[in-house]
Amino acid sequence: MKPVRKIIALLVALACFLALGFYGILLRQELNPKLLPVLGQVNAFELTDSKGGSFGLRDLHGKVWVADFVFTTCSGLCPLMTRNMAQLYRSYQLVPDVNFVSISVNPENDTPEVLQTYAKSQKADTRLWHFLTGKREDIQKLAVESFKIGSVKDPIFHSGKFALVDRYGNIRGYYEASEGEELSRLFKDVSRLLKERK
Fold first, then answer.
1. What's the CA gap between 85 and 128, in Å, rounded?
2. DSSP string spanning the chain?
3. Residues 16-37: pLDDT tens digits?
4. Are 62 and 130 contained in the same domain?
5. Whether 61 and 95 share a structural domain
6. Same domain, yes or no, for 168 and 78?
7. Do residues 111 and 17 both lie within one domain?
8. How far apart are CA 159 and CA 53, in angstroms?
9. Angle formed at CA 45 by CA 40 and CA 47, multiple of 5 degrees
10. pLDDT, tens digit, 9 for 90 and up, residues 84-101
11. Domain tally for the chain?
12. Domain range for 2
């Protein structure tokens, strides 16, 4: 009988040892999550915000931010993108280190006044959610050369993706703005970037 008890005791001890080891691995992964890759760098830019003021990359330094390219008269994907951006904005509205940036790809129509009205329709605090316009060439350059989305061949170009940018202007992820799973991933990745050292 004693040998059986010893075997049982050994099996229980082994199970406990394995469980503790597995827990330790999970804990290490939680404490040291894999960093999001750096996919590119946003070049310095200078645009105009919905208040008519100058706004550029320098104003976002030290912030984690989500960007998209839309326009106010769009009847296709833009309304859905803006609704989903508004959802993300509301989730992080009380976190000043997170900003949101919507850049118009139809600057001839989307003046600061138009963008101000658009921001109000989304109940957006424009200190945290910035609506930008400017010269068409500058916006095209930003979309195509910095964010690597959109095309200068289209008269009104834009992508259906959100871009996640870290505190230093590095692009850390792209997400399909119309897909729920992608939005959940973006929400989690914003939180991951907030935990990275400043």
1. 12
2. -HHHHHHHHHHHHHHHHHHHHHHHHHHHHHHSPPPPPP-EEPPP-EEEETTS-EEEGGGGTT-EEEEEEE-TT--SSHHHHHHHHHHHHHHTTT-TTEEEEEEES-TTT--HHHHHHHHHHTT--TTTEEEEE--HHHHHHIIIIIS--S-TTSSS---SEEEEE-TTSEEEEEEETT-HHHHHHHHHHHHHHHHS--
3. 444 444 444 333 434 445 899 9
4. yes
5. yes
6. yes
7. no
8. 26
9. 135
10. 999 999 999 999 999 999
11. 2
12. 1-32
Q: Angle, nearest 10°, between helix axes 180-195 and 78-91? A: 40
- Encoding tokens for residue 55? 């706004």
Whether residues 57 and 10 share a domain: the answer is: no
**Dihedral Cα 31, 66, 52, 116, nearest 10 deg:** -120
Q: How far is CA 40 from CA 66, 91, 148, in A?
A: 14, 26, 9
Range with lowest mean pLDDT among 34-38, 78-82, 149-153: 149-153
Provide the pLDDT for residue 174: 97
CATH assignment of the domain containing 182: 3.40.30.10
Give 26-73 pLDDT, tens digit per residue.
Answer: 334 344 458 999 999 999 999 999 999 999 999 999 999 999 999 999
Q: Do 52 and 150 belong together in one domain? A: yes
Q: Is the pTM of this model over 0.70?
A: yes
